[in-house]
């Protein structure tokens, strides 16, 4: 191989390095890449204009060659420490100054090139080896790291043999060829390093999104053995089980509501189903039913056969509850509008009828019918009570908000609640916390407390305990009513607050509906927890 061919190969390889690093700089806009671009441009200039066989070296080009080599190596080290996220150590500057001084003195004293170039090649070789080691320690495992780091280290080792072997006519072409091939390897390797770096950063970014999103993200592989390739950590919040609990579809089916399993099985295998979410009920680890919506898309092979399913699962329990609340309020509005329209019209004739019944009941000729007149008056009073409850459901009912202390209202009602409880052999435990005053309508709150405590007492058998408690939690004041009954049946719980829903023989079915309406007018929230051991109702008032 001729020397000219080898040098040309080296020049082309260095030009490729310039193009490679320029491309990376344009893509990533990093300062250390700009330094590396300048390194290889200076290398190209040195190769084209200053590289001469040792016997042809002149003093001025030698000074330029040595100076350019040291400056170039320092620039490479500066780019390398920038790549590693570190700062350039002053030791490199001191070393470069000392070694370059030795080389310049060697040229001035007329030493042989193999001698005056020793400090320079030592520094250049060290710069290459240092760059290779930094890339090795800073990059993630991959082909790019191995290729680039190895090529830089070998290039550094090769720099050390230059003063001793380049003077040999048979080795010089091979020396340039080895140098050029290593630069080709670096150009390819550094591209791979950045591709792998970008891929790893994207993987970390998407993993971060998957870990922090509230939706469950998954990938299910249909190929044997079938199972989940990935489930995001959000599944723990949804189900109470860790991601590793779900290996196959069978484990998922076990926590799906029996009525929804066929639906899930169909969506998990049918490719041609229309787009849209599928609503499912999930039994969480704590026994609660969680509403979820699931959507997946299929990955297919060249024949159209599904090989994997990717999708998301979202907890929509709060949305379902909100929809139920809205539906309940709509029903309340209908009843309230109806009540507002005719309740007053009914009350007037009832007042007249009651007055005449009282008048007739006092007459001596009707003395024998005193009991019947009493029954008629009781039924009229009961009818009037029902009308009053209807009016409480009115959406447009005027409320008189003023600053009141909920504890004072409870203390005022306590004797009445106690009397009702004693007649049913129920004990009452009143536990009042230190709470702020609230803007409320005291009459409506009295009715709310009366309805809740009456329901609680009627839900218990003799010997039960009714607990009434107030407390502050965050920015809310909470009224809690707890009984020791048998709990609210699920079919009643699902329709709680619906007008006319009652489990009592003589009930109107308006008590809880009125409670919901009162809470709505006070911007309060009614939260119910029920089970075989009893029911706890929280009325959550926002603090003023």
* Arrangement of strands in the largest sheet: 2-1-5-4-3
Strand content: 15-25%
Distance between the termini: 92 Å
| SS-derived structural category | alpha+beta
Number of domains: 4
CATH level-1 class of the largest domain? Mainly Alpha
Mean pLDDT value = 83
Features:
elongated; membrane; five-stranded mixed β-sheet; Rhopdopsin 7-helix transmembrane proteins; Beta-Lactamase; 544 residues; HisK_dim/P_sf; alpha+beta; single chain; transmembrane; 59% helix; five-stranded antiparallel β-sheet; Helix Hairpins
Note the topology.
Blueprint: H1 3-28, H2 31-50, H3 59-83, H4 90-108, H5 113-116, H6 118-138, H7 143-165, H8 172-212, E1 216-221, E2 227-231, H9 234-239, H10 249-255, H11 261-269, E3 278-283, E4 289-300, E5 306-315, H12 317-361, H13 370-392, E6 402-404, H14 406-423, E7 427-432, E8 438-440, H15 442-458, E9 465-473, E10 476-482, H16 490-493, H17 511-521, E11 525-531, E12 534-542
Parallel strand pairs: 7-9
Antiparallel strand pairs: 1-2, 1-5, 3-4, 4-5, 6-8, 9-10, 10-12, 11-12
Helix pairs in contact: 1-2, 1-8, 2-3, 3-4, 3-6, 4-6, 6-7, 7-8, 12-13, 14-15, 15-17
